[in-house]
Amino acid sequence: MTNASDAPAAPILPDVLSLPRKAQPVEGRVNLVGLTRAELAEALRAAGTPDKQVRMRVGQIWQWVYHWGVRDFAAMTNLGKDYRDLLARTFVIALPEIVQKQVSADGTRKYLLRIAGGHEVETVYIPEENRGTLCISSQVGCTLTCSFCHTGTQKLVRNLTAGEIVGQVMLARDDLKDWPEPGVPKDETRLVSNVVLMGMGEPLYNFDAVRDAMGIVMDGEGIALGRRRITLSTSGVVPEIARCATEIGCQLAISFHATTDAVRDLLVPINKRWNIETLLNTLRDYPRLSNSERITFEYVMLKGVNDTDDDARRLVKLIRGIPAKINLIPFNEWPGSPYERSDWDRIEGFADIIYKAGYASPIRTPRGEDIMAACGQLKSASERERRVRKVPAGEEGPAAG
Ligand code: SAH
Ligand code: SF4
Fold first, then answer.
1. Ligand 1 within 6 A of 329 CB?
2. Is 122 one of the annotated active-site residues of the chain?
3. Are 90 and 12 in contact (CB under 8 A)?
4. Structural domain harbouring 23
5. Which pLDDT value is given to residue 306?
6. Is residue 351 in a domain?
7. Which protein residue has the closest C-alpha to ligand 2 atom 4?
């Protein structure tokens, strides 16, 4: 999906050393996707745009790229021909490449993407009756090692760039034909209506790129998703949670998963660094700092590990005073996983206690299981593909299963 193949023989590059690091040239030209407005201004200035015009040009290009989904500078008809040529010689508008797309019987779509360096990540689109949620990745692998999560068995390969993060939203809109058409009001019917940072990786350990990417996704003159339509899920990186409130301002979900430090230490080892009490104290400030509504507490249901009535009662006691909803996630097994999913009547019994204590307690229906697109299954899918396609696993750790 890049324009690399029609690159001119001798591109005229801007003064690349003065560009932000993330805008360094790819295949001879600079990728504009993922630059903040300020960085785009800097890149255009470095390419020779007169100072007086920079602001206007940023606005025009921004709208073409992020509102209309245009990838070809030649189509930017409100720019002069010479300027379009200059842009085309200097820049690209490039997204990660879709290596494979799978569509589940339930309509869930999973995209296997290849990013620079030959690494692979996954993005999942989950259509529902009145909304469509895109689950995006923020890292290849993860530095953390939650014992129930398959991604956690893959060591961190690298952080995604802001362009690779916002690129996931753009390529899903491409695939779903979800970009607006001139003259057709579409806002109410957009297919990608929500974004969740719940794919591979710990978003708060890639803070700057995630912040810049979400800033682009929320920008009112582009993709324009409201900040209430974006949810960032974290395992509990306490020092970054306040920054998430003030610098991103999106909805927050916490991978809580246990009601005692002893059990949470085993399931979510970052708990040894910031325990339940420390985490909860930080969360109490989040709604005020971010001016957001409820925090979502994610709770994976593991048979015989964290699913008793006592756990449910402890959970509601712990989070008392925090505007919250509790999202129960039936455990999705992966080859070699050391846990089993709690029985349905156990999950319902647990949900009932929470509900009676006054909290919404939706049980997350596993989606896209037939294509291994459910929570926590993402690594297994790409590993399996890799085996079939005989692509070496590169720098990644060995597969768990
Ligand atoms: N790293 C972030 C976001 C990615 S994980 C985090 O941990 O919050 C998104 C959610 O899926 C988390 O709540 C995670 O705990 C959950 N999850 C991971 N593996 C799972 C599995 N095998 N079954 C069900 N949920 C899982
Ligand atoms: Fe990383 Fe989240 Fe998986 Fe934990 S649950 S290993 S933080 S991706």
1. yes
2. yes
3. yes
4. 11-92
5. 98
6. yes
7. 146
